[in-house]
Every structure is written in C-alpha cells, then in structure tokens.
Amino acid sequence: MRIGVDRKRCEGYGMCEKAAPELFELDQAGELIVKYEGREIPAEYEEAGREAVRVCPVAALFVEKES
Amino acid sequence: MTTAIGRGAPRFEVDLFSDEILTDPYPTYARFRAAGPVVWLPVTGAYALSRYEDVRAGLGDHETFISGRGVGLTDEGNATRKGVIIASDNPLHDQLRAVLAERLSPRAMQALRGEIAEKADAFVAEVVRRGSFDAITDLAQAFPLTVVADLIGLPDHDKHRLLEWADAGFNLWGPRNERMLRSLEKWTELTSYITTQATREKLKPGSMGAAIYEAADRGMITHDQCPQLLISYLVAGVDTTINGIGNAIWFFGMHPDQWEAVRSDASLIPSAFEEVLRMEAPLQLVRRYCVRDVEIGGTPVPKDSNVLMIYASANRDERKWKDPDRFDVRRNPVDHLSFGYGLHGCAGQALARLEAHAILQGLVKRVRRFRVGTPVRRLNNVMRGLERLPVDVEL
Q: For labeling, which of B1, B246, B268, B331 is most exposed (least CB within 10 Å)?
C-alpha cells in the first residue's frame, strides 16, 4: 500500500503522527515528514496507515495505491 | 433522470429549527439515523444525513455537495456571506484558506502556546477565586473573547459586541424563521462595523487582522476580499470555542467522576475535550447543495437539492461509537465531526484546542469539583450552547 499526501492541504495537525508514528512525523517546524513517500509501506504498518488517513481532519492524506 | 425531490427517502414532518427540537435535538437525530441513511424534511425542504459514515463521506465529496451556493437554507441568509471561505468552492476556497492557514495552522499556533497558557492560567486563577461564578459569561465567553479580539487586533472595548454578531451569523444559516429574520438586521451592524470602524488602520500591527490586509498587498487575495475574511475570523472564532469550553464545564459538573479522572491524570485533557466536542457539537449541522443526481445507501438524492450534514448526529451514531450517549473522557474520539471534515474542516481547530486545553489545565490545577446549577440554554438555528450556567467550585 502507498499513502499519498496533498501538501497544499496539510496544515500540520499531527493526527497522523499519533495514529502511525512509524509512517509520519512532524519536524521541529511542524512540517510533515512522510517516511515512505512514493514507496510501499511495510505490511505491518498498513492498518496504522489507514487509521492515519482516516483521522486527518482536512483529508490531506489518501491511499494512493492499495496493497 | 432526476428523481422527484423527497421521493424514496423516509419523510419526517418535523421542524428541526423549532424551539422544542433545538432544546433537545438528540431524540430526533436518533429517529433519523434509525430510519435510513437519508431522510427528507419537507418542512425545511432539505434532505438530511445523520449517520457518521454518510456525513463524513458527504463532507469528503465537496464536488457533489458544494458550499459555493451557501451553507445556509435561505437565499437572504446566503447573500450575507457571498464569497466567504466557508461558502466557497475551489479554487476560491484554497486561495482564501491559505491566508488564514498562515496564521491559524498548528505550525503557526506553536508560537502562541506559551502566551495563551499563561493568560489562561492567570484568568482561571482570578475567576475560581470567587468560589461562585457563571461558567458561561465569566469564563467560557470572557476568555476566548479576549484572546480573539487580541489576535485579530480589534480594540478591546469592541469585543463584547462579537457575541451577538456571531450568534446572528449562525442564525442566518437556518430557515426563514424568526431567529433568522431578526439576525438579518443584526448582521448589518457587523458589516457596518467592519467597513467603518474596524478598518485596516484600526487593527493592531502584527495581528491576524492586519495580516489579512498584508496578504492582499502581496497579491494572495484582493483587497475587496479582506472584510469578509475578517468577518470569518470574528464569527467563527468566538461562539464555537465558547460553547466548547462552556459545555466542558457543564459536563464535568454533571459527571464528577469524569472530572476526577482528568484531575488525577491531566494528560487526559486533550481526549476529554474531544469527547465534549463529540457529545455536543457546537455547530450542529451545515447545509450543502447537491449538484448531481446521487444515491446514498440506495436512496436517491437528486441534483439541486439541499442536504443537511448533521455533525451532532454523526457524533452520536451507534454504528460508529460504542455507547454513544455516554460521556467518557478516555474515549479520545479524534475523528468526531464537530470541526467538520475535509476541504472545509475547521481552519481554527488548533486555536480552539489551544484555548480549551489551556483553560482546562488551569482548572485541573485548582478545582476539585464543580457544582453546577440549572443551565439556561441559548437557542440558535445551528449553534448549540448555553447562555448561563451557575457554578460553585470546591477548591
């Protein structure tokens, strides 16, 4: 599975980081780091990844490609 | 082929905006949820979505359920908000949102955290020292008004006028009832205040208000768009946070065990505040305008119809939440819909949380127990909150 982010929409709420710290991180400046951007995420993080997509309050995250 | 409006959906002959239902809307919402994914309300001339997944999906599909025709139920009400962020579609929406997000996003809020926490702490200390006070007027209203007036850069003595203007602003989203008509008049006061008194040169330098005009200087928006953006700040920034904080104290008064849980573990404050927002969505619903024939759970919703997205019902949907009417500070319901969702997801949610968490932090340190008296509710077409709530605190 791949998760995409619409950078224009992301305002840095950090809900994804709480749901899936293995996949997302806010840096010091509050900018989102997507750890597997453009790559397949490891299977064990897929569920957390789906949750992260789900809790994004501004729908900036999306499942780009199903596993 | 377009379906005849209302056909195929369970029909409810209720006025969602009557005093009786506004006083306690939850039994009505529960009937809607039980009846089906979409219900038709002939009195209002609108469909309503009331189940969590449907409301969420509807908000997520902003190309079918548009905002650009207004989020209110009447043309007169919608005319007061032409071209404002909440009543716009893309590309206009993103253009306006970018201006607000520069100052309101969590990134931007980080810088304010310390200052707001300090202010809230001093404020709470002063209020609770009295022992008895009104949780709404003395606390829930007073703090956000000061914060918002200061952030926007308005003269402090004008801040109390924001309350009735915000109330009017939300009433204007309702049907053509007495509340809505009365608010039309009140609204002209606000627009005249913005154009004649809260003008650019009166806004404090460095404030969010001033930043709107600077964004226009940089070409992000036009100067004509500035007053409406300023109004968006004023209206959206007060009632919502006020009701969130007021409802929190009301719920903690009714559920002393839940307050005890937060008091003994202050790390529960964020979860507790989300739970208050889930239980009582300050903004109960918004209208969207459906621009194509669609089916929702097998029920046709035709093009050119009003669709109410009932956040407050979605937040109590038994399909989504276990024991949804129970107030549980440990639930951490981060995907409630009280801030909306998606494109129009509340732009001020980071500030709302910042203010509420800071107030709750101040209370947790000092208040052992709230003894609440009988609340007086303020009825508004779309906004749910209290007008008065007498409280005695045990320190």
A: B1
Residue B1 has pLDDT above 60, yes or no: no
B270 contact A CB<8A:
no
The CATH number of whichever domain residue A45 belongs to comes to: 3.30.70.20
Instruction: Determine contact, residues B271/B329, Cβ cutoff 8 Å.
Output: yes
B83 touches chain A (CB under 8 A): no
Q: How many domains does chain A have?
A: 1
Q: Is the Cβ pair A11, B107 closer than 8 Å?
A: yes
Q: What is the DSSP letter of B87?
A: G
What is chain B's Cα-based Rg? 21
Contact flag B349-A15 (C-beta cutoff 8 Å): no
pLDDT, mean of residues B181-209: 93
Could you please report the per-residue DSSP string of B331-394? ---TT-STT--GGGS-TTHHHHHHHHHHHHHHHHHH-SEEEE---EEEE-SSBEEEEE-EEEEE
DSSP B214-259: HHHHTTSS-GGGHHHHHHHHHHHTTHHHHHHHHHHHHHHHH-HHHH
Task: Give me the pLDDT at residue B3, please.
Answer: 65
Q: Is the dihedral of CA B326, B327, B331, B336 positive or negative?
A: positive
Kindly list the structural domains of chain B, giving each domain's residue range(s) and its CATH number in brackets, ordered by start: 19-394 (1.10.630.10)
Is residue B260 pLDDT above 70, yes or no? yes
Domain membership of residue A54 as a residue range: 2-65
Distance in angstroms between the alpha carbons of the first and the last residue of chain A: 4
Find out whether B69 and B38 touch, Cβ atoms under 8 Å: no
Given this model, what pLDDT does residue B159 score? 87
Residues in chain B within 8 Å Cβ distance of A15? 334
